[in-house]
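Human: I would love a firmer grasp of how sequence relates to backbone shape in proteins. Could you go through the record with me and say what the backbone is doing? Here is the record:
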Amino acid sequence: MISAINKYQIPNSPYYPSNYYTAVQPMNIKNTDNTVKDTFEYTPPLVTKPVDASIFYISDLHGKMTNMERICYMAHQFDNNKTSAAKLKLASGDILLGSNFLTNKVASNFLNWIGVTANALGNHELDATPDAFAEILKDARYKMLAINVTVSPQSAMAGKIGKSVVEEHNGEKFGIIGTAPPDVLERVGTRESLDEIKVDDLPTTIKKVQEEVNRLKSQGVNKIIVISHIGLGGDKLMAQNTSGIDIILGAHTHDLIKNVKEGENLFYSKSNEPVIITQIGKDGEYACVLNVSFDEKGIVTKVQNNVSRTGIYNRTLPYRTAVESIIGKPEIIGKVISAPPSPANRLISNNPHGNFIVDAMRHELGTDIAILNAGNIRGFFAEGDLDSRRINDVTPFEDKMLICNLTEKQIVDAIKIGGKSFVNPGNKPGILLVSGLEYKMNDKGELLELTFIDKNGVKSEINVNNPDVNKKYTVACDDFFAYGGDDYLPVNSHPDYVIKKFDVDKNVYTANYIRKMKTPIEIKEDNRIELVKS
């Protein structure tokens, strides 16, 4: 069972009833001639019962099918938990990831399997083209929600993204509003989906959420939940600058919020009502059951934030079989005889698992250098048989590979953008993983040294303070990086430095790289990225 972590009564709140029983004064009962009877009659005490709700909540799975299988089991347990509380199942976006149709089909079916009724539009839902996304949603039994998007009438996605829904459970109505990330241009790059689906900025998003809250309230819906993919900072602003929101099920910045603490995930609205914010990390490593009590006005009076790690649950055969019925059985392509643990923070670490991927990119495309953003790595290699599905777990985005001609200055500037991750909220966007290069960076994100290593192992120092604007290197990278995703390079859908395009992702090259190896694989630590104290 998903265990309780924390029970919290909203402190010092004028809305928390100290006594649910309201005393009723005696009434003088009169005879028909208007004289008073000799006895008094009393009405029984009125009882105001709280409205209890239990919300099973997920977000930011990023296509991680192994964790989807585990969450299916957790959702089954939630279903079997006998309670009188209203039960809701909601998601806050980034359940899909990348452009692979079959893996996204698994992710959408997963939401059906566990009974999610509404999912927010995350940036990774927009990795797919509008045509592919619309096709995926044909079988969806959940609503895709985002109050802050405008969809072109000519798009295949026209009419497929709603603003809100009202769900009725145990005779009680719950309003659910969705939001998409205002920073989607930075998070998706320049993709076809963003030509047809526009997302409002944060102030406009908050304004539209308030308008929708007001509309729902006018219809008698007084329990409002926002499934939000705008990030923790935006969620805090929304909580404190609106009235009527009760719960914000957050996502996008991958914060892990356990328990309930005033000033951290308990805030007060403009009308001084409590607002609860949640987030459960990344990659489906956690799921949450949020138990709440509302008073008769729809105001939260109690909350219990139960966060559970999915890794302690088994991947059961029925769900593994269901996944494989869509993507097929994985192919064993090699064997790993040793591998270190995954770094605690993959965004700002020299990652041997990611280094193996980027080495494969360079080897298979025959370039001077290979570059990959650390955020692309979402898993790790484990000892034992290595199958194609594990590779997709490690690097699941399915971006298209390119060969680019980049100058020393472009490369240095991109690495410095990655260095900002040390000081940016959530360590976004992540440092750059490299092959054919090694560099030293301090914990302020300052690039101290950079060295090019040619295919013969000869090293040449690059001046990080005055890099050559004319000297160029062939670079293996994906289209997300090359077209300006996360601003490592200037945003440009048709850059002149792209010299060759391939309609395959890095996981294909990694699988080919592994197949060519004659011996079992060792994933090794190295010092190609040296991180030092400032």
Notes: The longest strand covers residues 300-309. The radius of gyration is 27 Å. Residues 202-218 form the longest helix (17 residues).
